[in-house]
UniProtKB/TrEMBL annotation:
It comes from the Eukaryota. One of its GO terms (cellular component) is mitochondrial small ribosomal subunit. SUPFAM superfamilies: Nucleic acid-binding proteins, RNA-binding domain, RBD. The keyword ATP-binding does not apply. This is Uncharacterized protein. It comes from Phlebotomus papatasi (Sandfly). The lineage of its organism: Eukaryota, Metazoa, Ecdysozoa, Arthropoda, Hexapoda.
Length: 336
């Protein structure tokens, strides 16, 4: 003899599923340590392609022999419309576990709550009219495959398919946010590419001779004690009165990308350097900056008596640099 399916009683709660209703089942669970019963709520989805279940309705659901989808595990057996249920013994209207006349008497004595349900606005539906046909085929629903695919298709009262405007607005907003995130990702990749290549155009940098480096350094200044939140555009605006600026370079830590607190500014002419040196100890973003002439690093030369680093390394390779830079370019210039 086949075992009978367990029938559960619950209340319909708001749900965005098109072919199912969300049912809240309340149970009393025994605590083995305290030997006391406590309320426990669980939620399940019942197949409801015709949307006969409304929010607040009391329904009887039973488990399906086979799951329709990952979420839909039950089917609706009987629907008791919220606020329109009649007790077959007394003939009185009931709501959940109380008679309506008792609730109305309490409302007259203590006043009606603003959150109380208005029974006069309850849908005029009968039990038989809201019962499901046992011959209804659950496997022939054309929208079952759309439940978990994100499609916003629903059935209207006349059986025609319609699109939920609220869900469409949410999808449009999500799509817009995804596009913005994609744009930010592209901008970040371009910045990383420029930092890696060392050129604003992404081309391979041309190696400079020592004389060319010295000529560029003679037109450049070192700026120390720079605020970590400063940008190349802000530094350019601060030194704009000194003369034409070709490039502003803010040195950053390659490991974490945080600024190191100093920068280099390349001017269009050597005469502008003297004017820039007069900006020493001026305030920039609330900090007193230090402006000095930029020195040229010559290979093999050191200001100390120790040997140059990387000369006697066992594997024959010197340690690579650990800095990166954020640069603002003016015109077509080769990288520093």
């Amino acid at each position: 003899m086949a075992s009978r399916s367990l029938i559960l009683m619950g209340q319909v709660v708001p749900c965005v599923k098109r072919n199912a209703c969300k049912v809240r089942i309340r149970r009393m669970e025994l605590d083995q340590n305290l030997l006391m019963y406590f309320k426990k709520e669980e939620f399940l989805f019942a197949h409801d392609p015709q949307k006969k279940c409304k929010v607040g309705d009391i329904v009887l659901v039973k488990e399906l022999p086979q799951k329709l989808t990952t979420l839909i595990t039950h089917s609706v057996d009987v629907v008791y419309p919220y606020g329109d249920v009649t007790c077959p013994l007394t003939g009185k209207k009931v709501i959940v576990g109380n008679y309506r006349d008792q609730i109305e008497e309490a409302n007259q004595l203590y006043g009606k709550s603003s959150k109380a349900f208005d029974y006069d606005k309850a849908p005029p539906r009968g039990r038989l009219a809201c019962s499901f046909d046992e011959d209804l085929s659950l496997n022939e629903d054309p929208l079952l495959d759309t439940l978990d695919d994100g499609n916003d298709v629903s059935l209207s009262e006349d059986g025609n398919m319609q699109i939920d405007p609220e869900l469409e607005a949410i999808k449009a907003r999500v799509k817009e946010m995804e596009e913005e995130a994609e744009k930010l990702k592209q901008l970040q990749s371009e910045v990383n590419k420029q930092m890696t290549m060392g050129s604003p155009t992404g081309l391979t940098p041309i190696p400079l001779s020592l004389d060319e480096k010295m000529e560029i350094d003679n037109r450049s200044v070192y700026v120390g004690n720079v605020d970590y939140g400063a940008t190349a555009e802000e530094l350019e605006a601060h030194f704009h009165g000194c003369g034409t600026i070709n490039r502003v370079t803010i040195l950053c830590n390659r490991a974490d990308g945080h600024p190191k607190g100093f920068a280099y500014i390349e001017f269009g002419s050597k005469e502008y350097v003297e004017t820039a040196l007069a900006m020493n100890e001026t305030l920039f973003r609330g900090r007193q900056i230090k402006v000095m002439s930029k020195r040229t690093n010559r290979p093999g030369l050191s200001t100390t008596n120790r040997f140059p680093r990387g000369t006697f390394r066992g594997r024959g390779a010197s340690r690579a640099g650990r800095s990166c830079c954020h640069t603002s370019f003016r015109g077509t210039r080769r990288p520093m």
